Amino acid sequence: MKNKGVLSLFALSCILAACTAYKKNKAIVKDTRHYMADSSATKETVILFYNLKKSAEKQVLFGHMEDNMNGYSGWTSGTGKSDVYDVTGVYPAMYGFDFGPVASLKRGKYSDEQLKHTHDQVIEAYQRHGVITFSWHCNNPVSKGSFYWKDSPVNAVSEILPGGAYNKVFAESLTKIADFANNAKYKGKLIPIIFRPWHEFDGDWFWWGRSHCSIEEYKALYRYTVTYLRDTMHVTNFLYAWSPDCNFKSRQQYTERYPGNAYVDVLGMDDYSDLKQGKSPDVAASKLQLITNMAAESHKIAAFTETGLENIPQADWYTTMLLKAMKQGHTQLAYVMVWSNRPKSYWTPYKGHPAEADFVAFKNDPLLVFGDKAGDFYKLSGN
Q1: CA 12/CA 184 separation, integer angstroms
Q2: How far apart are CA 104 and CA 119, in angstroms?
Q3: Do the Cβ atoms of 122 and 177 come closer than 8 Å?
Q4: 185: part of which helix (H) or strand (E)?
Q5: Are the C-beta atoms of 328 and 55 separated by less than 8 Å?
Q6: Phi then psi for 313, rounded to 5 degrees?
Q7: Is the pTM here over 0.90, yes or no?
Q8: Which positions are catalytic?
Q9: Residue 93 burial (CB < 10 Å; 0-12/13-18/19+)?
Q10: Helix, strand, coil shares, percent, the chain, to 5
Q11: Contact 190, 184 (CB under 8 A)
């Protein structure tokens, strides 16, 4: 009888603990929604926002663009392939993709194959509990040419906004992104995605760059993109990231084209030039601190959305440049993303590369989190 009583008390305590955890997590989800661009986002997307913000207090997730899409040796498909895994024995915690092929208006065999390949690799990354982010190198909707201004110097921003002659054409691309998002499912649940449109807008290399549209036109472009996906197409599994390049020295310069807290979840920066060989990591560090401070004030997530040293000619770049930049001050970054690998342009080392040992040391630093230590960012403790 005594044993039955002990078991009953134990069962009751477990039930009470579960109820307490449930109520706590329900409150977390409800409170977190207030700070998000989409207050109607799926529960998993809200949890991702919360977990990224909490994780940033102590750790930085490591991300690699197209990690499971292509590699240094020229591979472009295959389950389980990853240059990061080849060197470290573990996968990255975060995977980068691009909506360029997905949203292309020029459909054909290649784009259809890329669409399927992207979908399959997103599923693979999600199955590893990887965090998913998409940029968008959008071809010029007016000229139908390149996203690079030098290859297609045609003004487009004013033409694709509501009232412009090419608004319907642009909306078609957004609809394709929405279709992808609404079909990105695993076991019936939508996969949360961090969407980062119109990046590096403070440079002139893209058609949406600072010399090719006014401040208000850029803000309108970003806001329209969010509202069309969120309110018209009812995409509920996106967090929205905003990231200039590193052409700023003050908060005023950083926020000059900021579309507003109602449209942004992640405040970021792309910075390659400040971390080139021979430069001090202090410069990038000060900018990351500025972003950290602003994100904390607005209850957003701070991130180092793009960086890297192409082909890594500096063997200790990862620990003496990138790691130092992220460790200085009181930065709290949710993640850092380096660019993708191809035979002639790679951003993580391959086996036998002079930077291999340094990259492993970088991976083993307590600040960094790769896939083996990331856990499940789509669940709250107790779920």
Answers
A1: 40
A2: 15
A3: no
A4: strand 185-186
A5: no
A6: -70, -20
A7: yes
A8: 200, 306
A9: buried
A10: 40, 15, 45
A11: yes
